[in-house]
Design goal:
Shape: globular
Radius of gyration: 19 Å
Order of helices and strands: HHHHHHHHHHHHHH
Bound molecules: iron/sulfur cluster
Structural class: mainly alpha
Number of strands: 0
Largest sheet: none
């Protein structure tokens, strides 16, 4: 049972969120939504604990496509960063604002950037591209994501200030256009830098929320430095260039870890867990 402890714990956390929101918002949707997401993640962790290589991909597609197709396209909720600002400016604490609060602002205190490893619908496509292990060293281009973050905020602010009509419809089309643009840029960057996660490293504005909180994440990859034989295998396989053979939270690119656990599989002396 010990190996299933993490999956059970995650399911319980999601159920607490599901029931709390269902009762406080008097909306059954939240019970269904968070039970589904928590269930997928728990099943994924259980499969992972059983050594199934496809576990993470399965969860990523189950959660990512549900959010993109059902919530985004069918329910017309803009879950991108523009949608977060939009609902925040409206003073509405539902949909995108709850999603951001749980998955991207406070949740990372518990599960770090688990969103990026197990749920993001952009990464679910990027992760099937050919460069799972980055072929080139990391570039100093992180400033781009801060620019995109500010541009998204400015765009939504301007739409509010000029009191544009049909703003809800505009947000829906922004969601479609923004996602298409993300996919195109993400795929192009993956091939240019020979790195599936180049978009995550340099462009994605959501990391501005994700990184500071995930520094304090309870769930993280630990390294027993006494056991480490400095073979460097974990560093070669890490899609996010995390200096995972150091235990310190301030290890290089530590807040980039997406908890894929590829490094733990590679370590010949089981120094990572
Ligand atoms: S960095 Fe952005 S695009 Fe990449 S997985 Fe995280 S949220 Fe998705
Ligand atoms: S390989 Fe290890 S350090 Fe790198 S992102 Fe995955 S879990 Fe994190
Ligand atoms: S794979 Fe294991 S032994 Fe090799 S550098 Fe990484 S932590 Fe150390």
């Amino acid at each position: 049972m010990k190996k299933y402890l993490m999956s059970m714990l995650l399911f319980v956390i999601f159920e607490i969120v599901a029931v709390s929101l269902w009762i406080s918002m008097d909306n059954l949707f939240y019970l269904f939504n968070f039970t589904y997401i928590g269930g997928c993640i728990a099943i994924g962790f259980a499969l992972f604990a059983n050594g199934k290589k496809y576990a993470r991909c399965l969860v990523q597609f189950a959660v990512g496509s549900y959010m993109l197709i059902y919530l985004g396209l069918i329910c017309q909720e803009n879950m991108q960063i523009e949608g977060f600002w939009y609902y925040l400016f409206l003073g509405v604490f539902e949909a995108a604002t709850i999603h951001y609060a749980v998955a991207k602002i406070f949740g990372p205190l518990i599960f770090g950037r688990g969103w990026c490893g197990y749920a993001c619908w952009t990464a679910m496509i990027l992760d099937v591209l050919p460069y799972k292990k980055p072929k080139e060293s990391r570039k100093k281009l992180e400033f781009i994501r801060h620019i995109i973050f500010v541009l998204a905020l400015v765009l939504v602010s301007v739409l509010f200030i000029i009191k544009v009509t049909n703003l809800e419809k505009i947000m829906f089309w922004l969601f479609i256009g923004g996602n298409l643009l993300y996919y195109v840029i993400g795929i192009i960057l993956a091939f240019i830098f020979k790195d599936n996660r180049a978009f995550c490293k340099y462009v994605c504005p959501i990391t501005v929320f994700l990184k500071p909180m995930s520094y304090y994440s309870i769930l993280r990859v630990h390294c027993n430095e006494d056991k480490c034989i400095h073979c460097g295998k974990c560093l070669k396989v890490c899609p996010m260039n995390v200096e995972v053979n150091k235990e310190s939270r301030s290890r290089k690119n530590g807040t980039e870890c997406v908890l894929c656990y590829e490094c733990t599989k590679e370590c010949p002396v089981k120094a990572l867990h």
